[in-house]
Amino acid sequence: MVLERKRILVGDDSETITTLLTAALESSGYEVTTASDGQETYDLGRGGEFDLVIIDQLMPGLLGLEVIDRWHDEGMQTPVIVLTGVDDDRTAVDSLDKGAVDFVRKPFRVPELLARVRHRLEA
Amino acid sequence: MTAIEVTQLSALIIFAANALLVAGLIALKTVHRSRARRHHRRKTQYMALISRHVTYANCTDPITNRMASDPAFLDALIDVRNAVVGPEVETLSGIVDRHGVIALQEARLRSQFPLGRRLRAAVALAELGDESAAATLMDHLADREPEVRIQAARGLGRMKWTPAIDAIVARFPVETPWVRARFADTLLGFGAAATWPLIAYIRVNHHFEREGPVAAIRTLAALGDDQAAQPLIEVLRNATDVEVRIATIEALGLLGSLRSAPALRNQARSADWRVRAKAMTAIGDIGDAGSVDIIASGLNDANWWVRRNAAAALTRVKGGVDRLCAALGGDDQYAAHAAAEALTEAGEVGAARQRLDDGRPLERDRVLVERLIGVGA
Predict the structure, then answer these.
(1) What are the backbone dihedrals phi and psi of residue A35, each rounded to the nearest 5 degrees, phi first?
(2) Given an 8 Å threshold on Cβ–Cβ distance, is B82 in contact with A107?
(3) Closest CA to B310 of B362, B263, B267
(4) How far apart are CA B201 and CA B85, in angstroms?
(5) ipTM of the complex
(6) Where does the pLDDT of residue B376 fall: very low under 50, low under 70, confident under 90, or very high at 90 and above?
(7) Shortest Cα distance from B178 to chain A (angstroms)?
(8) How far is B55 from chain A (nearest CA, A)?
């Protein structure tokens, strides 16, 4: 029997973050797709084929919270984890208000992020 | 050869020279773009490699010393370093140690030329914030290149290398305003640890120089450490330079300690209008109700700035609005105008009108609005 790998979409305009998260998530056995701006993240994620989305708040095109808003309006149920700047308390609160399941502050601890991803995917 | 032929030949030469120049510039730009693309490609590969090492403890993908000496590797390392915290930073430090990254950048910084490479090395050492580079960065606080000095201070600040505080402060009098401002930014990163070195520097030097102590006083104000209030009050008592006094008054206002009220009241009586004006603002900043009389006296000052600052300060001090209302109905039309402007800017006039409209006015509201009309504001 072949176990199907969980699919994760990472939306962040920082190549460093997408590369780092890809390495971390793939080494944990997940299949990762990346997007480099808000619009691309929205387009890729709206099909609902991902098990989890990790999205940065500050991106060109559409902000992370705008993307979540649109998905929410379209009835998308995929859990979303928001990445925010370290001093961005408002975004952290707003993202939970808008339906994100969790948020992670940048810079982050990789094992902590992986634990949060694991928790969401196994919940 | 005829004159026409000479003209034609000259035009041809000029045209050919221009064409060569343009072709050269295009070639140069193409080479530069191609190098930038290759650099970016390598950086992306290195970022993936470093990320694998950071996220997977048993990663066996090799990192060679040759890779580690590549500027693209350094850029990737710095980017990843800025994206993570915790044990991953130690993993990155391990990579830096094993491949002699710090030593290489130190050597580049110590070399005489080229400037671009030295600067890149200074930025790398500052970004990596590795304590093994502290001694080198200390040496380069006095580098001949301003940007290298700025990066050296930034790096020392990033690693919170407290012995650097005195060395950075000591550079204040000899630095340009731009470098001094960046040094001040660095000192803010040290937090309260920078308070006493700055105070010591100000105490010793404010009699002999101006720019350094003024910058140090402003840095103290930005640090916001209450411990600085008493020493600054002493500086204010002894300072003879008017710029030092003005900076000290401003700093005391920003620190907001009521202990500084008596000293600020003294300055509000200064013969210099700039000092009086700044003192009015500072008293308003600390909100000392006991100084309301002296601020109100500022409304009748001969200088416009003093009147304006006094009026603005009264809007922030308990009992001040009543004094402004009184000034509106007084004989001094300059004071009345200053009061009207301050009350309007502070929103007192709008609030009074609103309360009157709502039928719940304060005792002074009707008088305030009537007198304001009388002043013509």
Answers:
(1) -135, 145
(2) yes
(3) B267
(4) 35
(5) 0.86
(6) low
(7) 27
(8) 5
